[in-house]
Design a protein that fits this description.
Shape: globular
Helix content: 40-55%
Number of domains: 3
Radius of gyration: 21 Å
Low-confidence stretches: none
Oligomer: single chain
Structural class: alpha+beta
CATH architecture of the largest domain: Up-down Bundle
Number of strands: 9
Order of helices and strands: HHHHHEEEEEEEHEEHHHH
Mean pLDDT: 96
Number of helices: 10
Distance between the termini: 57 Å
Length: 392
């Protein structure tokens, strides 16, 4: 019988790394290095200053992280596990940075690639992959929240054009976007429109005074008789299937992203509790602290295995939205509980931005809410189990 003399990686107790292919390892290690060397040093100040570090966009694009799962159009054509690892390492830096990449990749480039015309793909996808054009996604409305079917934004035909009216809320990248993929009700059902930033009647206003996702741009979008040419309508989809398929892509990335935030919090307390001495011994030598950190590791390990399995299912073409809901629910809940407990273990130091848990804790309040609240995902799993829709 072989006996291991080396300790396990405390952030990867089940050695998920060994399950990754060589290309997946390369992506993970490359993005981790970028996060450590270039992103993390900026995130504390960005969070405090309520600003998105736009200087990171060219590097993110250079690494092939925008639209990474798309084949062609200057995109990297990576698999779904690679995209998940990208999200994990970026969110280890900050949820705001991962949100930027998620929106650009899953909510803007994905629908243009999946449902757009050849002209739309040729115009937008290479520019977005290079970070030369930024996109945002307009679905959520001020009164709508978790019920996209209650959409009020509408578009009516006027000759060869459409006239768009309404408003969208909580839109990541809104004020820096060159184009917004906006979903609106029409006489033909819900359709997707590519609204360009300079179209008359279209305005974006940044939402201030946030205490979460401060290193991210969040905006309201307003449409006052915006004339959108027919060439800017996504021709390949109608109905809620369009926006919901985008959300499935984004939610998948979130299941990985929050693992990174949780790992950052556990890593912080592992170091802190070794150095912090109370009642004559380091905190890490006490049963209470060891049990709490062991529970963090249990939750992280479960989340890692769920997301890896989810990625393999996705790459096999067998992904169900209910499976994504289960992982988003489990992993977000795990991450926010870990961040809160890590903040508590740090005591008074836990409220200082010199330590990462408070920032991740605040960010995760948004992440557990957007792309479907915890309750929405619980009900999605319940519907899968029973066949009964209990929403509403």
């Amino acid at each position: 019988m072989n006996t291991r003399n080396t300790r396990l990686d405390p952030l990867d107790l089940f050695d998920v790394r060994s399950e990754l292919a060589d290309d997946e390892l390369l992506v993970r290690d490359t993005v981790a290095r970028f996060a450590d060397e270039e992103a993390i040093p900026l995130m504390r100040e960005a969070f405090e200053q309520h600003s998105f570090p736009r200087e990171l966009i060219p590097k993110v694009a250079e690494l092939g992280l925008l639209g990474s799962s798309i084949e062609g159009y200057d995109c990297a054509g990576m698999n779904s596990v690679c995209y998940g690892l990208i999200c994990q390492e970026l969110e280890r830096a900050d949820s705001g940075l991962r949100s930027f990449v998620s929106v650009q990749s899953s909510l803007v480039m994905f629908p243009i690639h999946a449902y757009g015309s050849d002209e739309q793909k040729d115009r937008w996808l290479p520019a977005m992959a290079r970070g030369e054009a930024i996109g945002c996604f307009g679905l959520t409305e001020p009164h709508g929240g978790s019920d996209p079917g209650n959409m009020k934004t509408h578009a009516k035909r006027d000759g060869d054009d459409w006239i768009l009216n309404g408003a969208k809320m909580w839109i990541t990248n809104g004020t820096i976007a060159d184009a917004a993929v906006v979903w609106a009700r029409t006489d033909d059902g819900i359709r997707g429109f590519i609204v360009e930033k300079d179209m008359p009647g279209f305005t974006a206003q940044e939402i201030e005074h946030k205490f979460s996702l401060r290193a991210s741009i969040t905006a309201g979008l307003f449409f006052d008789n915006v004339r959108v040419p027919a060439a800017n309508v996504l021709p390949g989809v109608s109905g809620l299937k369009g926006p919901l398929s985008c959300l499935t892509q984004a939610r998948y990335g979130i299941t990985w992203g929050v693992i990174g935030a949780a790992q950052a919090c556990l890593d912080e307390v592992l170091g802190y509790t070794q150095d912090r001495v109370l009642f004559g011994k380091p905190l890490a030598h006490t049963q209470t602290i060891q049990i709490r950190m062991a529970d963090m590791a249990r939750r992280i390990t479960t989340a890692q295995l769920l997301s890896l399995r989810l990625g393999r299912i996705k790459d096999a073409g067998r992904l169900s939205p209910s499976q994504v809901s289960l992982a988003k629910w489990n992993n977000c809940r795990a991450a926010i509980d870990i961040a809160r407990d890590a903040r508590d273990i740090l005591g008074g130091a836990g409220i200082s931005a010199e330590y990462v848990p408070i920032r991740h804790m605040l960010n995760l309040e948004s992440v557990i809410t957007y792309e479907g609240t915890e309750t929405v995902h619980q009900l999605a799993v319940g519907r899968e189990l029973t066949g009964v829709n209990a929403f509403g």
